[in-house]
Amino acid sequence: MNPGALLARSWERAYAALPPWRMIAPLLEHNVGAHGDSVAWLEAVAALPALESADVDVGATIRIGTAAQCDQATQAALRDALLALHPWRKGPFSLFGVHIDTEWRSDWKWARVAPHLSPLEGRLVLDVGCGNGYYGWRMCAAGARCVIGIDPTIVYTMQYLAIARYLDAARPAFAHALLPARLEDVPPGSGAFDTVFSMGVLYHRRDPDEHLRALRAHLREHGELVLETLIVADGCAQVLIPDGRYARMRNVWHIPDTPQLLGWLDRAGFYAPRIVDVTRTTVAEQRTTPWMRFDSLAQALAPGDPARTSEGYPAPLRCTVIARG
Ligand SMILES: C[S@@+](CC[C@H](N)C(=O)[O-])C[C@H]1O[C@@H](n2cnc3c(N)ncnc32)[C@H](O)[C@@H]1O
To answer: Using the 8-state DSSP alphabet, how is residue 314 labeled?
Structure first.
């Protein structure tokens, strides 16, 4: 299937679940077409070798096929096409023996979050800031009726297409869509979703209250929010507002402590919040690999002091809260 058809199939799944969202189809087309690298990325997706396997494991490593199902030349072509979609941040994946060792061990985050969720069986799920859709496939494997991921970073849509190219045939029942857009671009207030995820997004938003209100307005009554974000340890500061960069990231605006975070959730209308996990990010979980060759967490920490960022702030500490809307 060519990349255009793969994109169309993904978006049709979203429109089938939420017909009013068809109105953003022109914007999605525009977002893909407007990126200067899109032509090269789409060519890389089109160059993926024609392989098929029903031997699939949507587990910690999302694995499709094995090395034995693919000769060496085909495997090299597959690796080249996938590497053209660098940087691979979320995963890991393994396609016909090509192991995509992503920057993040996203399986570790999923292992911390998944045990605390209301069962995803039969649920309509929104994953805001979904990256390449790694978690969306894990959600489908957990029985979600439909997962709609939204993320404006176009290379992640391309990575999603590369995986979907092989996984859709093996798991036709998975209704997993990825929309290349920002949360602000989709029609607001759908009130449609049983579960809404926002993982790793809140601290990138200038107005956290507005983000939380927008998430709540996409939940059905008593639906479940899964919020994962950076925090500071209680007693450090109510809210850390970085002066310039935080862990070398330019776009980090607010890092609350947990009482402040719970206050924001309450103000946005969520109830029954549960903090289900607090974990310090380590250089084992987020690191440079052959599939993400840029600097990573190790370079963002103070030399000799993993408890501090290079700017002198407390090192990344992440919290997952589950609340009802
Ligand atoms: C730190 S990553 C987190 C990815 C993933 N959710 C995870 O937890 O591993 C943040 C993601 O949010 C996306 N993002 C940034 N602004 C966004 C917005 N306004 N709406 C939706 N996604 C956004 C980025 O493109 C990026 O993929």
So the answer is: B
DSSP state of 222: E
Determine whether the shortest distance from the Cβ of 151 to ligand 1 is under 6 A.
Answer: yes
Query: Is 237's pLDDT higher than 90?
Result: no
- Using most ligand atoms within 8 A of CB, pick from 182, 201, 215, 319 the residue to mutate for ligand 1: 201
171, 139 Cβ separation under 8 angstroms: no
Chain segment 248-294, per-residue pLDDT in tens: 999 999 999 999 999 999 999 999 999 999 999 999 999 999 999 99
Residue nearest ligand 1's atom 11 by CA? 129
Answer whether 131 contacts ligand 1 (Cβ < 6 A): yes
The answer to whether 275 and 249 are in contact (CB under 8 A) is no
> Is it the case that residue 234 has pLDDT exceeding 90?
no
Could you tell me the CA-to-CA distances from 293 to 88, 151, 156, 196 in Å, in that order?
9, 22, 16, 31
CA 267 to ligand 1 center in whole angstroms: 23
Check: CB of residue 75 under 8 Å from CB of residue 48: no
Instruction: Give me the mean pLDDT over the 148-155 stretch.
Output: 98
Mean pLDDT value across the chain = 97
In degrees, to the nearest 5, what angle opens at C-alpha 320 toward C-alphas 187 and 207?
A: 45
Give yes or no for residue 78 CB within 6 A of ligand 1.
Answer: no
Q: How many angstroms is it from 202 CA to the middle of ligand 1?
A: 9
CB 294 within 8 A of CB 87: yes
87 lines ligand 1 (CB under 6 A): no
CA of 253 to the centre of ligand 1 (A): 14
Backbone φ and ψ for 191, nearest 5 degrees, come out as: 55, 30
The amino acid that residue 89 corresponds to is: R
